[in-house]
Write a structure and sequence with these properties.
The two termini are about 25 Å apart. The chain is α/β, with parallel strands linked by helices. The strands form three sheets. The chain has a four-stranded parallel β-sheet with strand order 1-5-6-7. It has a four-stranded parallel β-sheet with strand order 8-9-10-11. The chain has three domains: about 1-30 and about 430-485, no CATH class; about 40-50 and about 130-420, TIM Barrel; about 55-110, no CATH class. Helices cover about 50% and strands about 10% of the residues. Bound molecules: zinc ion. Zinc ion binds near residues 46, 296 and 327.
Length: about 475
Amino acid sequence: MKLAGILGALALASPALAAPDLATMGTAERAAFLKAFPKGGELHNHLGGGTPGELLLAWAIEDGLCVDVTELAIRTACAPGLKPAADVLNDEPLRSALMDSLSTRMPGHKGRSGHDQFFTAFSRRGALPKRQGDALAETLEGLARQNTFYAELMITPQFVASRALGARVGWRGDPAATRVALSEAGLEKLVPNVIADTDAMEARARAVMKCDTPQATPGCKVTVRYLFQAMRQGPPEQTMAQLQLGVAAIAADRRWVGLQLVAPEDAPDAVRNYDVHMRIVAEVTDQGRKAPAALHAGELTLKLVTPQTLSHHIGDAVRIAGARRIGHGIALPEEQGAHALAREMAAKGIAIEVNMISNQTILEIEPEDHPYAWFRKMGVPVVLSTDDSGITRSELSGDYALTVRNGATYADLKAAARNGIAFSFLPGEGLWLDPNTYRRPARACAGQIGRETPTGACAALIAASEKAREQWRHEHLLAKFEAEYVR
Ligand SMILES: [Zn+2]
């Protein structure tokens, strides 16, 4: 037993493993390899876009909803002229067209670009608001199937109430004055509602996954946290009310860990109000000191915006808003002073959430043309994520596979997976002293990483840190994976 333990520790410490060459693997071999590969954390995933159309239709039937056969949309009320969702199953051409409409699987659907098909799909997926717990279960099961056990999911709680309060208060001339007015109007009183919504969603998800029963499914083992997303569209005071409520929710409930700003970054309101949105995030988060923000920024190309708009969004998110992670960041090479900005992000440890499949579908950026390799070369931490896998009909493993077409090696993907926890918003000391490089473990855990159970000071570190706990679990999964698949 003792000898086995020593040999096990030696094997874990051995650097002699030959890294697999992902580029020369066939497509099928690479797909199977990356499905089993532990991918650490999924940090950019909108719960509202994570459910495949088949499931939305099944829920619509269960809930007695209807379908608009002209718009090919699920509707939450059955008005005259709409068809009961149950009838769709008896009409295969209609069912198939509905699946096209709820996803991006059919290029040029109804003459729309990938961008327009994607962003309009949300309004056709009508069954979701009541099914958030079911959607959560689906997402967590999907991650567990891919050997991935941490997620930060984007959700929009208390959307109507927070925005209505923002509309009532109005814009008071600057973010500081508006923040005070929103608080005086009772914005933070919505926090218990956010918590109640979260409780209800999780209770439903746990019931669906049969957690705490002998039939518990693997999704129960996924640790999940939430990012409070606010919409860029509409008047700034409404966007601000959402963000400010998000900060209050983060302070009150450990399941809420950060902010996000969503909706098309190229939409007129988003472009016009971009600067004020950055100042609002700075105000409500105290530039990231009070609460962390991961902001979509630079999900743009010249097909969508002017060169001027393309030149500053990421820089402003980093330097004005104090964003700790950047969603997409495709436009980084196009920003004014791109090299200096990339170096700054590398130095500050500001990660970019790369969504290869989403970028290919929405922005028409082929994997070979993605700036991912340059991010890596500049030392900017990168995580890989799905964005909206139910609409793009994809899985996290697919994003990893596509990144190989951009030159990613096994070592790059291993770093991306580790980054998925190291650059999460989980609190606590990390297991690594050098995130994104991973050569220096925390002193207490040196020589132990990869084992199943920590001992001594390492056990104490892990008991005290949510982040280290997830990293520890990931490293054990990685060691098991490499023992089986990496020779
Ligand atoms: Zn996104």
